[in-house]
Amino acid sequence: MTATISASVRARFRLDYPGFALDVDLDLPGKGVTALFGHSGSGKTTLLRAIAGLERVPGGYLAVNGNVWQDDARGVFLPTHLRPLGYVFQEASLFAHLNIRRNLEYGLKRVAEQHRKVSLAHAIELLGIGHLLERMPDALSGGERQRVGIARALAVSPQLLLMDEPLAALDLKLKGEILPYLERLHDELDIPVLYVSHSPDEVARLADHLVLMEKGKVLASGGLTESLARLDLPLSQHEDAGVVLAGTITACDTQWHLNCVSFAGGQLWVRDNGASLQQKLRLRILARDVSLTLTPHTDSSILNVVSATVIELGDDHHPALTLVRLDAGGTPLLARLTRRSAASLDLYPGRAVWAQIKSVALIQ
Ligand SMILES: Nc1ncnc2c1ncn2[C@@H]1O[C@H](COP(=O)(O)OP(=O)(O)OP(=O)(O)O)[C@@H](O)[C@H]1O
Which among 222, 265, 274 has a CA at the least distance from the CA of 246? Predict the structure, then answer.
């Protein structure tokens, strides 16, 4: 294998199907979660399959944190079974005749002792499935099966984890149960993850980097925070467009069950969901939940008022509305307003405003 020095995932693939062409050239972070987002048929699964070597793409190139898995120009092509990766699908296909422990152990044999970075015990603990080990797959719920599938993918100590809509087959309640486990993986493991999702909520909670796909091409690739705030990308037109900011809990108001989250642009009060002081968390602020004023109001019910500057105004999919991109101390915010309000406030790039955000609207 040829070695490169960059700590990243480099993927270059061109593939032609009748009526569809994949044409990507990506340089992705070598750690953290990269979300692949795009309409159905935009090529997300095809890209994952090419990365896994399941789709043989002549002329392709793939290097994962310095290890070249495919470089056809040099005659390098690792078959799928030799690529140290984990692949999680919408539904975990477990062996029906093996109990959960045996399912998890299956596949471990091909991982040499010295390459085992994630122990089976650690994977079991991370996904909270210790109590299920002696059960048979048909005695598990869909959510439990999926947690086993994720643990199985982790247990082979992958250098890259591919997740293709791992929560898509689950109902909202089960999704809510599994997301915290995925957040733990994100926080505790150093494995780069490519995560296909249609859900802005999952992307907001898990991703660090965002790749937007359209018709087989990469429309944009960049950090999550910056990408979500771009008015030129279709994401901003979603009903639940908004930004994600990273903050730390710096105060607790036990009388009113509120926590104060400090971020680069100020402070926000959020509902106390059991987080502790100094805990880091992500807040999702939807554009429709942000209103603007020219002076800070103290006679309103809104607890959160942040000083910001208008960066740009952009079109919304509805002619009555406009999207305003703001900067709050280096943190981007989006506000969706009526054009009438924007006109009566006389908003223009550079104008100083106050962004009001209802506490109840903040998503943790
Ligand atoms: N083996 C194949 N032969 C021909 N066309 C294919 C093949 N595999 C995929 N395609 C086509 O490639 C396009 C991209 O499919 P792909 O499954 O990658 O999209 P996707 O973004 O993952 O979609 P979804 O979100 O619905 O899963 C589609 O038009 C699909 O029909």
Answer: 265
